[in-house]
Specification:
Layout: E1 4-7, E2 29-33, H1 36-40, H2 46-65, E3 69-73, H3 84-95, E4 99-103, H4 108-120, E5 125-128, H5 137-145, H6 152-163, E6 167-168, E7 171-172, H7 203-216, H8 232-250, H9 270-275, H10 280-292, H11 298-322, H12 341-344, H13 350-362, H14 367-381, H15 385-395, H16 401-412, H17 429-435, H18 456-467, H19 469-472, H20 479-487, H21 490-506
Parallel strand pairs: 1-2, 1-4, 2-3, 4-5
Antiparallel strand pairs: 6-7
């Protein structure tokens, strides 16, 4: 009997992926391929490439240990065509399968490729939905039609009702849906941040690290020390560590930032969730269990579950509902080139240097660093959306287009005109000063608004509002700053524009 060829991508590393659902080990073959095109179409961080290749190789090993036949094409195989389409065509020739079975990918570009295979391969190609998510494409579309999900908060409440997560009958646990207002504390001086569990590379991972050093050594980011889990067993250990040690403090300090503390109380779970080593369902269930057993408070658990059941599902829904046109919008007509500091980390702005430094060291930065520092700067500076999107897609171990693009294009750059978020998250230096200790020891002063020594975020913030008066001034959520701007003397406005222009023009 001809086998079915089950093609598993690098972000589908779970036995629960739909392409493996009805796998017959006596008959079928699992195909996995490492291809250069995918590592290079944006210049991915070296640790991101090592993480994914090591996780793939360990997953193949685990499948083989179950007695499953795995056809694994390595990056340095001389016959490797280095593209998905080339490798699937070669594998079909090798195995003459009855059909090819795949789970839909996390990127529009690859989805289009898969649609081509259905035309070009001499066997049927079955593309299955990725059911690792709480909300299917059809459900998201239906919720949108019912106008229940225009905004994330309403979508999230509906998902709480549907899944029963953190519900007490029909009511939200704790008496309210959202504990966000309790989750904005700055880090008190002297608070102990728990040390984070990292994982020592085994021989298989070491071989991958050497391969990445040899082939992608010129890419952004430090390759070592490498501390990510690359097996399901270690990812589960990372989940235990989060639930026991940092989830209790996650809520209070969700928005805090501190120099030299790259992880704080965050989960560090997104790379595992996104590549398949952990599932969203088990992670949310564990967090809920921690609340019910009294191990973590409601503001921490609700805040965490909202990120996954709410934001993660919502951005995915938007991505698949709006692509490919979504990526082309540019509501604020932003067009500046990405400043070199994003790649070099060299800047006297301490907040930017800290966040880019963390990114370089770990292929990770936490949400507020991405949103309110590197993202905020790109928004205020008017960086071309495509350029900042490429940066975010390249530098984070958790970056796959379905989740990266809506976060950057929509949440950060407001390039979608407000489809994702009702207003741009623009902020001046006062916000960063309040939520971090970055400003102490910075070359600039967050309390100075204009002129030499002023924090660039201050004049860039007002300059952004001035430049975008037409598309943004009618936004009710920006009514207050626009009222302030309306009262501002013309000379003061002119100084802001002059400071911002001089600063931006001076950036390499
Ligand atoms: C500009 C920008 C780019 C981003 N790019 C990515 C990306 O490429 N991949 C990615 O997974 N997340 C992205 N995020 C969302 C978020 O920053 C990361 O998921 C989070 O920092 C991952 O670290 P963590 O696991 O420690 O998260 P925690 O702070 O512990 O949060 C828990 C989980 O919630 C989920 N989550 C939180 N916020 C979001 C969000 N806005 N969208 C989707 N999921 C969310 C993640 O799965 C995360 O693991 C981006 C956010 C911004 C502002
Ligand atoms: S003063 Fe401004 S540039 Fe410096 S760290 Fe603070 S917010 Fe960043």
């Amino acid at each position: 009997m001809s086998p079915h060829l089950r093609f598993v991508l690098g972000d589908q590393l779970t036995r629960e992926v739909s392409s493996l659902a009805d796998l017959d080990p006596a008959r079928d073959i699992v195909l996995m391929v490492e291809v250069e095109v995918e590592a290079r179409y944006v210049p991915h961080h070296q640790q991101k490439i090592a993480f994914l290749l090591a996780a793939m190789r360990h997953f193949a090993q685990a499948l083989r240990a179950e007695g499953i036949r795995v056809d694994y094409v390595r990056l340095d195989d001389p016959a490797n065509t280095q593209s998905f389409s080339g490798e699937i065509a070669r594998a079909v020739e090798r195995h003459a399968p009855a059909s090819v079975i795949v789970t839909e990918p996390g990127e529009w570009r690859v989805r289009a490729m898969m649609a081509d295979w259905a035309e070009t391969l001499p066997v049927p190609v079955h593309i299955r939905e990725d059911d690792r998510f709480f909300c299917s494409h059809a459900e998201f579309a239906a919720l949108g039609r019912a106008r229940k999900t225009g905004r994330m908060e309403f979508f999230y409440r509906e998902m709480r009702r549907r899944t029963g997560l953190l519900m007490r009958g029909d009511a939200p646990e704790g008496g309210q849906w959202n504990f966000d207002p309790e989750n904005r504390r700055a880090l008190p001086r002297g608070l102990r941040v728990p040390p984070r569990q990292r994982f020592t590379p085994d021989a298989l991972t070491r071989a991958v690290i050497d391969l990445v050093a040899a082939r992608f050594g010129g890419h952004f980011g430090d390759l070592e020390p490498f501390g990510w889990a690359v097996t399901r067993a270690d990812a589960l250990r990372a989940l235990d560590h989060f639930i026991e040690d940092t989830l209790p403090g996650f809520g209070d300090y969700q928005d805090a930032m501190k120099a030299g503390e790259d992880f704080l109380f965050h989960g560090l779970l997104s790379p595992y969730l996104n590549c398949g080593l952990l599932t969203a369902r088990e992670v949310c269930a564990r967090a809920e269990e921690a609340f019910r057993s009294g191990a973590a408070p409601i503001n921490a658990v609700e805040g965490f579950i909202r990120q996954i059941l709410g934001w993660r599902e919502f951005v995915r829904g938007i991505y698949w509902a709006e692509m490919p046109a979504y990526a082309d919008s540019n509501h604020l007509n932003a067009g500046r080139d990405l400043p070199a500091m994003y790649w070099t980390g060299e800047t006297p702005m301490r907040c930017m240097a800290e966040c880019i430094g963390a990114t370089r060291r770990h292929a990770y930065a936490h949400h507020i660093q991405r949103l309110m520092v590197t993202g905020n700067f790109a928004l205020l500076a008017g960086v071309a959306p495509a350029q900042i999107e490429e940066w975010y897609l390249a530098v984070y171990a958790d970056a796959f287009e379905w989740v990266e693009l809506p976060n950057v294009h929509g949440m950060v750059m407001h390039a979608d005109g407000g489809r994702l978020g009702s207003k741009p998250y623009a902020a001046s230096g006062a916000y960063i000063d309040r939520m971090s200790d970055y400003c102490k020891g910075c070359a600039f002063n967050p309390k100075v608004k204009r002129g030499p020594g002023a924090c660039p975020f201050n004049y860039l913030y007002w300059n952004f509002l001035i430049e975008n008066e037409k598309p943004l001034s009618a936004n009710p959520r920006l009514a207050m700053p626009y009222r302030t701007l309306a009262r501002m003397p013309a000379a003061q406005r002119a100084e802001i524009v002059a400071d911002a222009t001089a600063f931006l023009d001076s950036l390499p």
